[in-house]
Every structure is written in C-alpha cells, then in structure tokens.
Amino acid sequence: MSHARYTASAPGKIILMGEHAVVYGRPAMAAPVFQVQATATLTVEDDAAELWIDAADLNQRFALSTAPPADPLALALRLTLASVQRPAPGGEVRVRSTIPVAGGMGSGAAVSTAIVRAVAAWAGQALPPAAVSALVYEVECLHHGTPSGIDNTVIAYAQPVWFVKGQPPQPFDIPHPFWLVIASTGIASPTRETVGDVRGQWQADPTRFEGLFDQVAGLVNAGRAAMLAGDWFHLGALMTANHAVLGQMGVSAPILDRLVAAANAAGAFGAKLSGGGRGGNVIALVDSIAAAAVEQAVHDAGAAAVIITPIGVNT
Ligand code: MEV
To answer: What is the pTM of this model?
Structure first.
C-alpha cells in the first residue's frame, strides 16, 4: 500500500472596516490573522475505495460519497475535484483548525481554502489565489446567503485587501504594521441572520440605509489613508465611528458595545466590532504600551478569549 500526503493551510481573518456596507458595493478592508489557521491534509491511499473526511474539531467523520450536498467540507472537495477534472482519490482528508468556529474570523472560509489547496497540490495544479477564492466563494454562498466575497478573498490571498464587490480585489502592503487586540465574545456571529436583517431594513427604508452605507464608505476611505500614513489616532477614531454606524444598522450587541468602550477607556486608539456582529469579536487598535491594559480591560468586560496580533507583518 502506498501513501502520498498533501498538506495546505490558510489563515483566519478580520474585517478592519466596512463590513455590511460592503454587501452594497461600498469598499471594505480586511487582513489575514496568521496566529490562527486551518490545515487540510489529504492522504491518498492507492488501495482505498473511499475518500474519508475527518474533521475532529467539528466531531465529524464521513465518506465523501455519502455526504449530503449541503455539507460545506464535501462541497469544497467536490468543487475542487471538478475544477481540477479528477475523480476523488481513495484515502482521507483530515481537517484541523485553531480558528474559533463562527467567531467572525472566517473559520469556514479558511477550512475550505485549505481543502482546495491540498486537493490542487495533489492534482499538480497550482491554483492562483483568484481561482481558490472563487471556489471558496461558492461554498460560502451555501451558508451565508449573499456574501460580498470579502472573507474568501482575504483568506485566499493571505494578504491585506481593499475590496469592492464585483471588482478585482486589491491586495495592499501596510507600510507601518500595527497591533490589534482581538476580543472574542465567545458567542457565534450569525452572519447569515445579520446580513438578512440589514437587507430587510434596507428594503424597508432604503434612503436611511443608503445613507448609513455612504457614511461607512467615507470612514473606510479615510481609514485607508490614515493606515497608509501610520496615523493611529485618526484610524482609531474612524474605527470607533464605524462601530457606531454598525450599531445604527442594528448589528451590534450590548457585549460588543461593552468591549469597545472598555478597550477605548483602557487606551486603545479605537475599537469596533468586526465581521457580521451580534457575536463574534471586537478589534481594538493599540500600540505596544497599551496592549496589556486593553487585553486586561476586555477580559474584565467579558471577553471569552483574546488574541494580540500584528497586522501587516507576513508571518
Ligand atoms: C462578514 O465577515 C462580513 C459581512 O460584511 C458579510 C459579507 O461581506 O459577506 C457582514
């Protein structure tokens, strides 16, 4: 019996600014978070009849041939096999992830990305990030309704991206890396639900919501300039303002508002919810002096887990 093994991984992500408005054509910025990642290992066994999927973190083990069409892991595999024009090999795809599930850090998109890359490596086809991203987007659509595509893009490119729906993403370099404290609520962010709620409110009052989306666009444009200039005071203020607009859209929650207030009171330049909202996480922009105090403050305010990460450093 011969074995061959193909391993690929993908980082987590955070949305820096512009979530929700990005679904309506406004710009957003997102960045990969390399401290957390998803890994897929495809072990091909010549004499195995089935391809097994083993996702211990999700308590799942099943054969691809018996998986329901709506299973996201199976869908990522099927779409990639179709794309590389190969039948499923026998063996096992083992999926592991340190990204909090449904925590607003793109765990699903990262797992799909790792699967796509492992299968492409086995098929001997180096898929460019745009092709990986397109396959992962199809999987994301299954569970997220009408995603903008920003999550799969930032994870597949593994670089900070400037994103406008329907346009080629612009990966960008961050000339002055900065620190974020990522405070997780421990509550799943129901992205499909919040995106659906915003859509319902936009349909009921398009003038108000187009106005809110335009406000976000203004903040994101200013945020990009502040980020490129390394002006953390201004960027932080813009992030906190973005959080306030997300609150007006109805996607914040008392715990998210508490974490933002606690981070800012402890010396962050600014803070906001990141991702779909209601749960998930808050990101706070800090310097190395404030990081420890902000970490403590968000713990005290009820954060379930905290990550301190540099943004703009490719490790
Ligand atoms: C979710 O990470 C970001 C949202 O803007 C949804 C999307 O862009 O698809 C809330």
So the answer is: 0.94
